[in-house]
């Protein structure tokens, strides 16, 4: 069974940093591209970042690409999202996701709240 568990969220002040992690199990992690999404309260799901299976080609949402970075450690079956210079508008539930057929799988999410 495919399983994704996110961690690393929390309550931080504007300008601070967090590093989210997503531990994967139940599939060949090193063979799959991975994604991060977020959903702010009352809003729809928003794609944030993607990374290829080998980690060599990261893509990040234009509006945050100077502050966020996606990475992975295939030896640890772990996906990361580094969040720097956080803003209040970054507050959201952050999910990792793996494209699967017939349906993609995502974790339960980790909450990031940015507030002074």
Cα Rg:
13 Å
Oligomeric state of this protein: single chain
Structural class: mainly beta
Mean pLDDT: 97
N/C terminus separation: 40 Å
Q: How much of the sequence is in beta strands?
A: over 45%
The geometry reads as globular
| Helix content range | under 10%
Number of helices: 0
The largest sheet, given as strand count, sense and whether it forms a barrel, is: 7 strands, mixed
Uncertain stretches? none
Give the arrangement of secondary structure elements:
Layout: E1 3-7, E2 10-12, E3 18-25, E4 34-39, E5 45-51, E6 58-60, E7 68-73, E8 78-83, E9 92-98, E10 105-106, E11 110-114
Parallel strand pairs: 2-11
Antiparallel strand pairs: 1-3, 3-8, 4-5, 4-9, 5-6, 7-8, 9-10, 9-11
Description:
With 116 residues, the protein is mainly β. The protein has no helices and eleven strands. Strands 2, 4, 5, 6, 9, 10 and 11 form a seven-stranded mixed sheet that branches. A hairpin with a 5-residue loop joins strand 4 and strand 5. The termini are far apart.
């Amino acid at each position: 069974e495919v399983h994704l568990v996110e961690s690393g969220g929390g309550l931080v002040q504007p300008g601070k940093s967090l590093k989210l992690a997503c531990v994967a199990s139940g599939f060949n992690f090193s063979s799959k591209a991975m994604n991060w999404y977020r959903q702010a309260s009352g809003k729809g799901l928003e794609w944030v970042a993607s990374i290829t299976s080998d980690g060599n080609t990261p893509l990040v949402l234009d509006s945050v690409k100077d502050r966020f970075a996606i990475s992975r450690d295939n030896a640890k079956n772990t996906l990361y999202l580094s969040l720097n210079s956080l803003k209040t508008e970054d507050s959201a539930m952050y999910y990792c996701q793996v494209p699967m057929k017939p349906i993609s799988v995502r974790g339960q999410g980790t909450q990031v709240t940015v507030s002074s």
